[in-house]
Amino acid sequence: MATGLLTQIRTLFEGDPGVRKVADDPVLSAELLLLFRMILADGVASDSEMVAFRRICTQAFGIAEQSIDAVIEYLNEFGYETNGSQAIAMFRDLDVERRRQLARHMADIAKADAHLAENEVKLLRRTLDLLGISPVDVVKPAT
Predict the structure, then answer these.
(1) Which residues does the UniProt record annotate as the domain Co-chaperone DjlA N-terminal (predicted)?
(2) How does DSSP classify residue 140?
Protein backbone atom coordinates (compact mmCIF):
# COMPACT_ATOMS: atom_id res chain seq x y z
CA MET A 1 0.00 0.00 0.00
CA ALA A 2 2.80 2.40 0.85
CA THR A 3 4.43 1.76 -2.53
CA GLY A 4 1.20 2.58 -4.36
CA LEU A 5 0.83 5.79 -2.37
CA LEU A 6 4.42 6.79 -3.13
CA THR A 7 3.82 6.13 -6.83
CA GLN A 8 0.71 8.32 -6.77
CA ILE A 9 2.58 11.13 -5.02
CA ARG A 10 5.47 10.87 -7.51
CA THR A 11 3.05 10.96 -10.44
CA LEU A 12 1.32 14.00 -8.95
CA PHE A 13 4.57 15.95 -8.75
CA GLU A 14 6.47 14.54 -11.74
CA GLY A 15 3.63 13.72 -14.12
CA ASP A 16 2.65 10.45 -15.72
CA PRO A 17 5.70 8.21 -16.35
CA GLY A 18 4.50 7.31 -19.86
CA VAL A 19 4.11 10.97 -20.77
CA ARG A 20 7.56 11.73 -19.33
CA LYS A 21 9.03 8.93 -21.44
CA VAL A 22 7.43 10.31 -24.61
CA ALA A 23 8.23 13.94 -23.78
CA ASP A 24 11.89 13.09 -23.10
CA ASP A 25 12.36 11.19 -26.38
CA PRO A 26 11.83 13.30 -29.52
CA VAL A 27 12.10 10.27 -31.83
CA LEU A 28 9.45 8.37 -29.86
CA SER A 29 7.23 11.45 -29.87
CA ALA A 30 7.68 11.76 -33.64
CA GLU A 31 6.83 8.10 -34.20
CA LEU A 32 3.69 8.26 -32.08
CA LEU A 33 2.61 11.39 -33.96
CA LEU A 34 3.11 9.62 -37.28
CA LEU A 35 1.14 6.62 -36.03
CA PHE A 36 -1.65 8.98 -35.00
CA ARG A 37 -1.59 10.56 -38.45
CA MET A 38 -1.99 7.07 -39.90
CA ILE A 39 -4.96 6.41 -37.60
CA LEU A 40 -6.60 9.60 -38.88
CA ALA A 41 -5.56 9.22 -42.54
CA ASP A 42 -8.88 7.67 -43.55
CA GLY A 43 -10.87 10.19 -41.53
CA VAL A 44 -11.99 7.66 -38.93
CA ALA A 45 -10.19 6.54 -35.77
CA SER A 46 -11.51 2.98 -35.60
CA ASP A 47 -11.46 0.89 -32.45
CA SER A 48 -9.21 -1.67 -34.13
CA GLU A 49 -6.68 1.03 -35.07
CA MET A 50 -6.65 2.31 -31.49
CA VAL A 51 -6.15 -1.27 -30.22
CA ALA A 52 -3.17 -1.60 -32.58
CA PHE A 53 -1.80 1.76 -31.41
CA ARG A 54 -2.12 0.71 -27.76
CA ARG A 55 -0.44 -2.63 -28.48
CA ILE A 56 2.49 -0.89 -30.20
CA CYS A 57 2.82 1.55 -27.28
CA THR A 58 2.99 -1.23 -24.71
CA GLN A 59 4.92 -3.90 -26.60
CA ALA A 60 7.36 -1.87 -28.68
CA PHE A 61 7.93 1.11 -26.39
CA GLY A 62 7.18 -0.16 -22.89
CA ILE A 63 4.52 2.44 -22.18
CA ALA A 64 2.20 1.17 -19.46
CA GLU A 65 -1.43 0.65 -20.52
CA GLN A 66 -2.61 3.01 -17.78
CA SER A 67 -0.42 5.78 -19.26
CA ILE A 68 -1.62 5.57 -22.86
CA ASP A 69 -4.62 7.89 -22.46
CA ALA A 70 -2.35 10.51 -20.89
CA VAL A 71 0.16 10.01 -23.72
CA ILE A 72 -2.60 10.53 -26.29
CA GLU A 73 -3.66 13.69 -24.49
CA TYR A 74 -0.04 14.90 -24.48
CA LEU A 75 0.26 14.23 -28.23
CA ASN A 76 -2.99 16.12 -28.86
CA GLU A 77 -1.77 19.11 -26.86
CA PHE A 78 1.79 19.31 -28.18
CA GLY A 79 1.64 17.44 -31.48
CA TYR A 80 0.47 20.46 -33.43
CA GLU A 81 3.99 21.85 -33.10
CA THR A 82 5.38 19.05 -35.31
CA ASN A 83 4.20 18.36 -38.85
CA GLY A 84 4.61 15.04 -40.64
CA SER A 85 7.70 16.10 -42.58
CA GLN A 86 9.43 17.22 -39.38
CA ALA A 87 8.54 13.95 -37.67
CA ILE A 88 9.87 11.87 -40.57
CA ALA A 89 13.06 13.96 -40.68
CA MET A 90 13.92 12.72 -37.19
CA PHE A 91 14.20 9.19 -38.62
CA ARG A 92 16.38 9.87 -41.67
CA ASP A 93 19.64 9.57 -39.75
CA LEU A 94 18.61 6.51 -37.75
CA ASP A 95 19.70 3.02 -38.70
CA VAL A 96 17.68 1.24 -41.35
CA GLU A 97 16.13 -1.28 -38.95
CA ARG A 98 14.69 1.51 -36.80
CA ARG A 99 13.24 3.13 -39.93
CA ARG A 100 11.77 -0.23 -40.96
CA GLN A 101 10.21 -0.58 -37.52
CA LEU A 102 8.43 2.76 -37.98
CA ALA A 103 7.15 1.65 -41.40
CA ARG A 104 5.92 -1.67 -39.97
CA HIS A 105 4.11 0.10 -37.16
CA MET A 106 2.43 2.44 -39.62
CA ALA A 107 1.41 -0.54 -41.79
CA ASP A 108 0.05 -2.34 -38.71
CA ILE A 109 -2.14 0.67 -37.94
CA ALA A 110 -3.31 0.97 -41.56
CA LYS A 111 -4.24 -2.73 -41.74
CA ALA A 112 -5.86 -2.86 -38.31
CA ASP A 113 -9.38 -2.14 -39.54
CA ALA A 114 -9.06 -4.65 -42.42
CA HIS A 115 -9.50 -1.83 -44.96
CA LEU A 116 -6.68 0.09 -46.61
CA ALA A 117 -8.01 3.49 -47.55
CA GLU A 118 -6.40 5.40 -50.39
CA ASN A 119 -5.11 8.10 -48.02
CA GLU A 120 -3.52 5.45 -45.79
CA VAL A 121 -1.71 3.95 -48.78
CA LYS A 122 -0.54 7.40 -49.90
CA LEU A 123 0.73 8.31 -46.43
CA LEU A 124 2.56 5.01 -46.08
CA ARG A 125 4.04 5.23 -49.59
CA ARG A 126 5.23 8.81 -49.02
CA THR A 127 6.74 7.85 -45.66
CA LEU A 128 8.56 4.87 -47.19
CA ASP A 129 9.95 7.10 -49.93
CA LEU A 130 11.16 9.72 -47.46
CA LEU A 131 12.75 7.07 -45.24
CA GLY A 132 14.38 5.21 -48.13
CA ILE A 133 12.55 2.02 -47.22
CA SER A 134 11.29 -0.52 -49.75
CA PRO A 135 7.68 -1.74 -49.43
CA VAL A 136 9.16 -5.26 -49.34
CA ASP A 137 10.89 -4.35 -46.05
CA VAL A 138 7.53 -3.61 -44.46
CA VAL A 139 6.14 -7.07 -45.09
CA LYS A 140 9.30 -8.96 -44.14
CA PRO A 141 9.59 -10.06 -40.51
CA ALA A 142 11.87 -7.93 -38.35
CA THR A 143 15.42 -9.26 -38.08
Answers:
(1) 33-138
(2) S
104-141 per-position pLDDT tens digit: 999 999 999 888 889 999 999 999 998 899 988 787 66
Answer for the pair 31, 105: CB distance below 8 angstroms, yes or no. yes
pLDDT at 37 over 50: yes
pTM of the model: 0.82
Decide if 109 contacts 53 (C-beta within 8 A). yes
pLDDT for 5: 47
Instruction: Please give the Cα distance from 120 to 115 (Å, whole number).
Output: 9
Checking 23-31 for CB contacts under 8 A at 24+ apart, the result is 23/74, 23/78, 26/90, 27/90, 27/91, 27/94, 28/61, 29/75, 29/78, 29/82, 30/82, 30/86, 30/87, 30/88, 30/90, 30/91, 31/87, 31/91, 31/102, 31/105
